[in-house]
Amino acid sequence: MGLPIGLGSKDFHPALLFKSYRAISKAPVEILWRKLVDLADISWHPLFAGSNAPSGLSAKPGIIIRAAIRSLPIPVRLFVENVRPGEFLSLRILMLPGLEQRITYQVESTVLGTYIGYTISLRGWLTPIFWWLIKPAAAKVAGSLAQAAEQLFQATYERKLRNPLYDRG
Asked: Distance between alpha carbon 105 and the CA centroid of its chain, in Å?
């Protein structure tokens, strides 16, 4: 009798985790992307409480900012690894020795709305403990981004309607 799938195989590693989440937003890709790459305003993110990025700083490869995790008193650094404007953002989280974290966002316009893909990968001996601490918040990231982008879209749309110079025709 064999072990359950994964527990006895060569591919199973208890200190490696890879999890993906998805959401659909009614906001256009441009608005959602603007919200995602605004490193100064990460208040929508359930894992991060804030950052030290100056207002208006957009994600570009090589940028490193400091951020605070909501549930843990641990300061982290967010390193922007890769950016494909309007499509893809990859961040590496520099936190503790023994834990490597990478976050990727994928944005795509579909018939149903704007698709948001969020993937988190953790590696290192602290992975099981850290995942146990952040799992509830990690599950909410894609949905929180969708909601924040929709609020920004609604505010932008209302502002245009109130502007007498806006051409409604």
From this structure: 6
Q: At what angle do helices 141-162 and 29-37 cross, to 10 degrees?
A: 120
pLDDT band at 6 (very low <50, low <70, confident <90, very high): very low
- Record the pTM: 0.83
* Other beta carbons less than 10 A from residue 51's beta carbon: 21
Residue (of 50, 18, 29, 19) closest to 146 by Cα position: 29
Greatest pairwise CA separation for the chain in angstroms: 75
Is 114:29 a contact under the CB 8 Å cutoff? yes
Instruction: List pLDDT tens digits, range 12-42.
Output: 455 789 999 999 999 999 999 999 999 999 9
CA atoms within 13 A on the CB side of 18: 3
